[in-house]
Amino acid sequence: MDTFENVSVVKKANVYFEGKVTSRTLVFADGSKKTLGVMLPGTYTFNTQAAEVMEILAGNCEVHLGKNTLHVRAGESFDVPALSTFEITCPEVVDYCCSFVE
What we know:
The chain is an all-beta fold.
């Protein structure tokens, strides 16, 4: 899906790692949320509350999730369990969509 219909956008940006990772939150009519964002080259560690599906829209990255290492490219996605930590290394700019799983 290239577009989302009938959503609200939270104006305030989510800014992490001194501005190297930014996103905007989309809120859907059913209350579900997604974020659309960009990660600049670097390595970042995230802690999750809810389970997430991270879809890589452009670029590629290496993800360390538990004992697993994943190489994820544009058009691919990976699942992140709730209450977990993952590290992501971006050798180039990565455009992503994060869907929060209830």
